[in-house]
Specification:
Oligomer: heterodimer
CATH class of the largest domain in chain B: Mainly Alpha
Number of helices of chain B: 10
Number of domains of chain B: 3
CATH class of chain A: Alpha Beta
Helix content of chain B: 40-55%
Largest sheet of chain B: 4 strands, mixed
CATH topology of the largest domain in chain B: Butyryl-CoA Dehydrogenase, subunit A, domain 3
Distance between the termini of chain B: 31 Å
Number of strands of chain B: 10
Strand order of the largest sheet of chain B: 1-4-5-8
Structural class of chain A: alpha/beta
Radius of gyration of chain A: 21 Å
Distance between the termini of chain A: 43 Å
CATH superfamily of the largest domain in chain B: Butyryl-CoA Dehydrogenase, subunit A, domain 3
Largest interface: A-B, 13 and 18 residues
Order of helices and strands of chain B: HHHHHEEEEEEEEHEEHHHH
Largest sheet of chain A: 9 strands, mixed
Strand order of the largest sheet of chain A: 11-10-9-12-8-1-6-7-13
CATH topology of chain A: Rossmann fold
Number of helices of chain A: 7
CATH superfamily of chain A: HUPs
Number of domains of chain A: 1
Radius of gyration of chain B: 21 Å
Structural class of chain B: alpha+beta
Strand content of chain B: 15-25%
Number of strands of chain A: 13
Chain lengths: ~260, ~375
């Protein structure tokens, strides 16, 4: 079985985020680049599927990033992925989510796959649209927001998080799955993994080599960021002075009911 | 000249930093308060391969270099010095003697489980009456009918009494040399040896979550082949181990100082007095600037010593300089970190309180500051 995990390289999540007012893009200079934390859950889910399936199951990491991001991709290999495909092309710069999905779909199709696993979103742009688009472009069922993911023969069985609980869903392979943070706890790369990652292949391809015919990047972007603003500061919470414990408890219960927590 | 770490070194440092931040730091305060040995963290470090970091892969290690090892100890100590010394003592004192002086059989039997982190091992040099004067060893081992009969006491032995401890390698007088001086050899004594007992854990000022005990040998009998390295070379071998160990202590000191500096920096930005964060006061800024300057200096010295070792150079001088300087830097830094915290720094809820207590041993262990100066003076040819 061939499992593909899509990953994104993002600025360190703990660093302060700044947006360049000119380009309206996130400033990435001077900030360390890391694997998108959401994608680590996807990789962990894929590695667990591989460990369970055994045999000749492979996990390939696919990303679109400048070539100097190789070292970050190597972390995914150190965690246990077998190899990586990296789309690196100056023409890809400024791609919107459609452009990215388009290019990744080509690279994934070229690589071949039974299952694609994605994180739900990236910590930089946070559109959360990529998994859905990718499933559509690959022409396979998209099972999104999963908190549980299993392979049963040629069927994917999963639990999809919903507002009130979860739904049991399934689909035939090939398919695409996106997983949430509740699915697992990503492993640390072991030292053996780190030392072994050097010997694994990162295939660097241009857009043309990956068969991306469509123009993507800045020129091909179908969306435009017209402006940005920092969110308004959160207002002060409501303070209620209870006459006694019973009245206080009653008030809390009302609040929880109103918010549909109980 | 190149100040860049390799990709492996960076990856190992990042791994250790993430591990220390997420797994070690949240436990540090409680481990200190309970003086509780972190079995779970040792297991996790073993699973990651940290416990066998510099040893060859064929012996269960990860085959990484000394720079990676120093960075690993530094990052773990940045979160918690007790966990840092548990790792450092395991690698550089417990396991390295087998790697350096062990026979193939000894390596298979002991180094492999040690490198995998399934077993811990002590390094027994110090005695109640033989500290800086390590040659003043009184413990004796007599060869009788193919066994060493050991009698004596060892003091302050790290990792010697945990549930994972497999034994301790000691220095013991095994005879007299041709000049009539005591002949000192190394003998590995397994934990279950009759006549070998460990005291309760010491109650300590710092490093509270690390395991430190006094060892007693009363007619403890081990087979002759538990001799480690050549007979009569015991003191030289152990001093050789300590040369490498100085890089460990430098890393412990630099890590501890970094941790204390970061706590102080964060606190200074947050703590408001006279209508502004205290970080706006020059008195505090100067302290923080001095702390960072000294930490960077100590870190470079530590990395240089590690680099020299990795490149097969003579590293005794740079390791001694790095150990001495970092230990003294860690004292100045933890002192100022507590000072910046004011009264809160004296309270155990603030990590700098623990760091202040954990620091002092860096100036004593593996050669006091004074002995370090003697070593340096000797290397200068004085």
């Amino acid at each position: 079985m061939k499992i593909v995990v899509t990953v994104k390289l993002v600025p360190d999540t703990n660093a302060d985020k700044r947006i360049d007012p000119e380009t309206k893009r996130l400033v990435r200079t001077g900030v360390e680049t890391v694997l998108n934390p959401f994608d680590e859950y996807a990789l962990e889910a894929a590695l667990q599927l591989k460990e369970k399936a055994g045999g000749d199951t492979t996990v390939t990491v696919v990303t679109m990033a400048p070539e100097n991001g190789k070292e970050v991709v190597r972390k995914a290999l150190a965690m246990g992925a077998d190899d990586a495909v990296m789309l690196s092309d100056p023409q890809a710069e400024g791609s919107d989510v459609w452009g990215t999905a388009h290019a990744l779909a080509k690279a994934i199709a070229q690589n071949g796959f039974d299952l694609v696993v994605c994180g739900t979103q990236s910590t930089d742009a946070i559109t959360g649209e990529l998994p859905g688009m990718l499933a559509e472009l690959l022409g396979v069922p998209g099972l999104t927001y999963l908190r549980k993911l299993e392979i049963d023969g040629t069927t994917v069985r999963a639990e999809r998080e919903t507002d009130n609980g979860y739904a049991r869903i399934s689909a035939p392979l090939p398919a695409l799955a996106s997983v949430t943070k509740s699915i697992n706890e990503p492993r640390y790369p072991s030292l053996r993994g780190i030392m072994g990652a050097k010997k694994k292949t990162i295939a660097v391809r241009t857009l043309a080599e990956a068969g991306v015919g469509q123009e993507i990047g800045n020129a091909g972007a179908r969306t435009e960021v017209t402006g940005f603003e920092t969110p308004p500061a959160r207002g002060k919470g409501e303070v209620y002075q209870a006459a006694d414990a019973v009245a206080g408890a009653q008030k809390i219960l009302e609040f929880l009911r109103e918010k549909k927590f109980v | 000249m190149n100040f860049d770490l390799t990709a492996d070194q960076r990856a190992i440092q990042t791994l250790c930093r993430d591990f220390a931040e997420n797994e070690v730091k949240p436990r540090a305060e409680e481990m200190d308060a309970q003086a509780e040995f972190p079995y779970d963290l040792v297991k996790k470090m073993a699973d990651l391969g940290l416990m066998g970091l510099p040893f060859p892969e064929e012996y269960g290690g990860a085959g990484a270099d000394t720079i990676s090892y120093a960075l690993a100890v530094m990052e773990i100590s940045r979160a918690d010095a007790s966990t840092g010394i548990t790792l450092a003592a395991h690698v550089s004192l417990g396991s390295t003697p087998f790697a350096m002086f062990g026979t193939e059989e000894q390596k298979q039997k002991y180094l492999v489980p040690l490198a995998r982190g399934e077993m811990l091992w002590g390094f027994g040099l110090t005695e109640p009456q033989a500290g800086s004067d390590a040659g003043g060893t009184r413990t004796r081992a007599e060869l009788r009918d193919g066994s060493w009969i050991i009698n004596g006491t060892k003091a302050f032995i790290t990792n010697s009494g945990t549930d994972l401890s497999g034994g301790t390698t000691i220095t013991a007088i095994t005879g007299t040399d041709e000049k009539g001086r005591p002949e000192i050899s190394n003998i590995a004594v397994p934990q279950d040896t009759p006549g070998f007992t460990r005291s309760k854990k010491y109650r300590k000022m710092g490093w509270k979550a690390s395991d430190t005990r006094e060892l007693a040998f009363e007619d403890a009998r081990v087979p002759e082949d538990m001799l480690l390295g050549a007979r009569g070379r015991g003191l030289k071998q152990f001093l050789k181990i300590l040369d490498g160990g100085r890089i460990s202590v430098a890393a412990l000191s630099v890590g501890l100082a970094m941790g204390a500096y970061e706590e102080a920096l964060a606190y200074a930005k947050e703590r408001r007095q006279f209508g502004q964060p205290i970080s706006k006061f020059q008195a505090i800024q100067f302290k923080l600037a001095d702390m960072l300057m000294e930490i960077e200096h100590a870190k470079l010295m530590m990395l240089r010593a590690a680099w020299e070792k990795d490149n097969g150079r003579e590293f005794e001088m740079s390791a001694s300089l790095a150990k001495l300087y970092s230990a003294e830097v860690s004292r100045r830094v933890v002192n100022e970190a507590v000072q910046i915290h004011g009264g809160y720094g004296f309270m155990d809820e603030y990590p700098v309180s623990r760091m202040y207590r954990d620091q002092k041993i860096n100036e004593i262990g593996e050669g006091t500051n004074e002995v370090q100066r003697l070593v340096i003076a000797r290397l200068m040819g004085l």
